[in-house]
Amino acid sequence: MNMSKGSNTAVPTTALRVEVGWRPGPGVPDADASALLLAGGKVRSDGDFVFYNQPAHSSGAVRHEGKRTDGGRVTDTLGVDLARVESAVERIVLAASTDGGTFGQVPGLSIEVTDTATGQVVARFDDPGATVETAFVLGELYRRQGAWKFRAVGQGYGSGLEGLATDFGITVDQPQHPAPGRGSTPPPPPVTAPPPPPPPVTAPPPPVVPPVTAPPPPAAPPAPAPRPVRLSKVTLTKAAPAVSLAKQGATSGALRVNLNWQTTQQPSGRGGLWGARRFELDLDLCALYELADGRKGVVQALGNAFGSLNRPPYIHLDGDDRTGATASGENLTVNLDHLHDLRRVLVFVTVYEGASSFAGLHATVTLQPQHGAPVDFSLDECTVPSTVCALALLTNTGGDLVVQREARYLVPERGVSPQRTVDRAYGWGMNWTPGRK
Q: Comparing C-alpha atoms, which of 77, 424, 16, 47 is closest to residue 227?
């Protein structure tokens, strides 16, 4: 159902996929989807804001599921479960913000709401008329007489995600301004009034003896003030390939590494099985690790070496996406609470099935710490017959984990496995045996 601005339609189901989409290209800025859960026109707390730095609402009603490229379009997806929306929430605002440009530079902007169970499109709003805006409310889900409806909104903000968030009651973490530089004039000291004269000395009053009573119970400590929402994120490039996680506030908790991909090449089988059988592209996210005590190993789906978060190697592969068809892609988690036990981690990806190289692959790597700004980067176009790509090298440098963008395609020699190839390239020095999954 293609809608016009201001129109609304009933939502006949509760499990929804909301996709903000656009056509990528040279000079087209990136965009990010977000959602705000409102009661009385405002959020109840900063936790009611779901976006790339807060990817899930505490109720489980809204989740930020990330980006995909498919059929010449990029989509950033929100999962919505209306059955889990708390009764106080009246509206869910569905919005997007740009990174590095305005929405007037984003062709084919749209929002589409789909029934997760059937794949049927519930509502779609194309071409909302964006020009110079850097944040845009595309639509909203709202309650009406005990049922849910969707409205096409089309309201923009020139103040970006910060302006959008603060307009609905979010407290945004403000960057600290630097001290005045050389040659600048410091601010004048504040003018204060002279202190008042001391009171006259008088005789103290006679002491009053209070009655003996039980001491009052200790006062409860004040609740900690909520931390402001951080809107910053980091994109690694060839010119700026490394970042300190500590400087981004990521010193503890879980670090989630996500790989999402889409390919334009026709799938093929392994070992020349073109005509006999067709495979979906299957990529495997893996990690070589070296612990502080010198132990080394690999986390991968082959051999069911999925690792562990709470014991060595403190790295866990969440699962094996055999097709790339899921919205979440492949995910690997690093336990930063055991950072002192880790020396270095090399995250890499191999082609397990469905293609002879990474040529034609479109992939994005996102490192999402539990605390701190996310770090993301895209893979370069592959121009060699590579079946293994080193993605990122994480190195412990005195209690801080530094992320280095690698994006390095490697070509295995004949008879050499992709794992052994990446081991040799980075000097890990392990012994390898064949494995299956």
A: 47
Strand ranges (DSSP E) for 71-146?
73-81, 91-99, 110-115, 121-126, 135-144
Q: What is the pLDDT of residue 320?
A: 56
pLDDT digits (tens, 9 = 90+) for 72-129: 888 999 999 999 999 999 999 999 999 879 999 999 999 999 999 999 999 999 988 8
pTM of the model: 0.59
Which amino acid is residue 295, in one-letter code? R
In the structure, how many helices (H) and strands (E) does the chain have? 2, 25
Token pair of 242 as six digits = 């490394």
Class for domain 236-426, per CATH? Answer: mainly beta
Query: CATH 2.60.60.30 residue ranges in the chain?
Result: 2-167, 236-426
- Tokens, residue 300: 């991968």
The two tokens of residue 239 are 């010119």
Phi, psi at 264, each rounded to 5°: -95, -5
Per CATH, domain 2-167 is 1.20.1270.10: no
Distance CA(233)–CA(32), nearest Å, equals 11
What angle (nearest 5°) sits at the alpha carbon of residue 375, between those of residues 96 and 377? 85
pLDDT in tens, 122-163: 999 998 889 999 999 999 999 999 899 999 999 999 999 999
3-state SS assignment for residue 367: strand
CA dist list (Å): 103 to 7, 53, 106: 21, 21, 5
d(CA 46, CA 402): 29
Of the candidates 177, 157, 182, 181, the residue with the CA atom closest to the CA atom of residue 168: 157
Determine the Cα–Cα distance for residues 82 and 378; give it in Å rounded to an integer: 33
Cα–Cα distance for residue pair 98/31, rounded to 1 Å:
4
The β-bridge partners of 125 are 3, 111
